[in-house]
Amino acid sequence: MTRNMDLTALRSFVTIAESGGVTRAAGFLNLTQSAVSMQIKRLEEALGVQLLDRGARQIALTGAGEQLLSYARRMIHLNDEAIGRLTHQAFEGEIALGVPSDIVYPAIPQVLRRFSADFPRMRVHLLSSYTRKLKAMQARGECDLILTTEDAIDTGGEMLAEVPLVWVGAPGGQAWRARPLRLAYERHCIFRTGAQAALDRVGIPWEMAVDSDSTRTIEATVSADLAVHTALAGSIPPYLEPIPHGGALPDLTTQHINMYILDRARGRGVDHLADLVRQAYCGGTPRLELAVAPV
């Protein structure tokens, strides 16, 4: 039959051992001396051993008491740790950060690591989606701070960087030579229409090889050399590479990486996160005067 030790009695026992007596332990525990003595008596009866040598001039531990003390300290420590973890408010707040999936790497993990070190009790909830959706979410108050990839900048935005778009494909791939050129894009990708328009201007026929809502589907198709894609220079995944087309494909536009901060979210945590994002993209110096996104 399983028996359980009383943690309250164990706490009294440890306090007696560390304070040197029942009277002192009772004071530390805010209990009466008789209550503490009764707890120890019940503990001894439950274990069938004597824990305190009451014959000594000062209360001392018996051999069994010395052995129990090590266990008791560990049990109390685990109890207090579990209670603390499950009931303590570990975070002082949460920030919703929205970032397009194609610019999460390499900057954002570094930003999150530094923010966690500076604000260990604040949680950053990272939302990865396309620019249009992130802007709609912020308009509804669902994102405190967002990054976007856009041709220009809207009111309330801050431009962090201007980055060229490049054609990308599988390492050593040949899909870019095919005509019609096979393209792979997410349905809501903001780069899609610009790439199609650039091909139309130079008379290169194209077709959509993949039209999906899944970033992974696009990545798998392009890395298998079944289609080509476009990406921002400096944010190309390791399983893709810029296409060395030598002018066979049209040049693409540059894109702005912009930041928008929700007005009501402004505060020490959000402002610090925004500063870290600035440092990651432009060394901490804003390229435009910061304006706050309307609520």
Question: Can you describe this structure?
Answer:
The longest helix has 25 residues. The chain starts with 6 loop residues before the first helix and ends in a 13-residue tail after the last helix. It contains nine helices and eleven strands. The strands form three sheets. Strands 3, 4, 5, 6, 9, 10 and 11 form a seven-stranded mixed β-sheet that branches. It has a two-stranded antiparallel sheet with strand order 1-2. It has a two-stranded parallel sheet with strand order 7-8. 39% of the residues lie in helices and 22% in strands. The chain has 295 residues and is of the alpha/beta class. The protein has two domains: 81 residues, Winged helix-like DNA-binding domain superfamily/Winged helix DNA-binding domain (Arc Repressor Mutant, subunit A, Orthogonal Bundle), CATH 1.10.10.10; 205 residues, D-Maltodextrin-Binding Protein, domain 2. Strand 3, helix 5 and strand 4 form a beta-alpha-beta unit.
Unreliable stretches covering 5 or more consecutive residues? 284-295
For the record, the CATH class of the largest domain is Alpha Beta
Strand percentage, roughly?
15-25%
| CATH architecture label of the largest domain | 3-Layer(aba) Sandwich
Tell me the Rg in angstroms. Answer: 32 Å
Shape summary: elongated
- Mean pLDDT value: 89
The assigned structural class equals alpha/beta
Helical content band:
25-40%
Distance between the termini: 63 Å
**Run of helices and strands:** HHHEEHEHEHEEEHEHEEEH
Instruction: List the domain count as a whole number.
Output: 2
What is the overall number of helices? Answer: 9
Q: How many E strands?
A: 11
CATH topology term of the largest domain: D-Maltodextrin-Binding Protein, domain 2
Largest beta-sheet characterization: 7 strands, mixed
